[in-house]
Structures are given as structure tokens and as C-alpha cells.
Amino acid sequence: MPFKEILEDMLSQLPGAEGAIIADWEGEAVDQVARIDDFEMKILGAHKGIILTRLRDALQRVDGGEIEEVLIHFARTTVLITPLNEDYFLVLALASKVLTARAASVMRRCAAQLRREIC
Asked: Going edge to edge, which strands form the sheet with 70-73?
């Protein structure tokens, strides 16, 4: 199944989801689906890639294991980040009213599908 279809399915299950992007380790967009401006989604993906890289570096220094998920709450937005493998990650942007636990569960299923497609 193409990446875009998987992302569209994830967003359809989450009213209030603003977009999702798959990006590579450099923050370059691989594929995305957005209800917000496409360029904003790409910027969001690139910036969250920097955060993911910094967290991975910090955890490596203290032998903290691998990152499974990152959750960031902003005033009007919540962002979930999950690595798909060493080279790719998924970012999901949500309006702050979306239930985070449900969104995380839906994102985990989506990430599992994407991992199968990538391999």
C-alpha cells in the first residue's frame, strides 16, 4: 500500500488531525498528507527531525535505549513523533483538542504498517 494511503487512513480516524509526514533522517519529506499548508507540514517535519536526532544523541550518551515515541504539547497543537527505522520517522500533528492516547494508538498501528512497507 502506498505511504500516502496509509497516512490518509490514519488521519481519517482522527478528527482534528492536522497532518502527517514521513521524513528521512535529514528531515526531507518522503510523503505527507496535510489539512494545513503543505509547506508548514514540511517545516514541522524537518524541525521535529532535529528534535528526534538530538534526543537520540542524548540517549546514546547515557545508554538510554531507543526512542519509541515523542509527545510534544504546544498551546494549540500536539505533535507525536515516532521513528520508523534508523533512517525514517513519522510526525503526526493534531489540534490540541484531540485525545492524545487515541491518536498515539492509531499512530502506532500506522507506523507498524509503514515499517512493513519500508522493509
From this structure: 29-34, 17-24, 88-95, 77-83, 70-73
Number of Cβ atoms within 10 Å of the Cβ of 26:
10
Question: What does the block give as the cell for 48?
Answer: 521535529
CB atoms within 10 A of CB 13: 14
Question: Mean pLDDT for each 10-residue chunk of the chain (119 residues)?
Answer: 93 95 93 95 93 91 90 92 95 89 96 93
Written as nine digits, the cell of 101 is 492516547
What residue has cell string 532535529?
Answer: 50
Q: Which residues pair with 33 in a beta bridge?
A: 20
Please, what are the domains in the chain? 3-118 (3.30.450.30)
DSSP string, 58-107: HHHHTT------EEEE-SSEEEEEEESSSSEEEEEEEETTS-HHHHHHHH
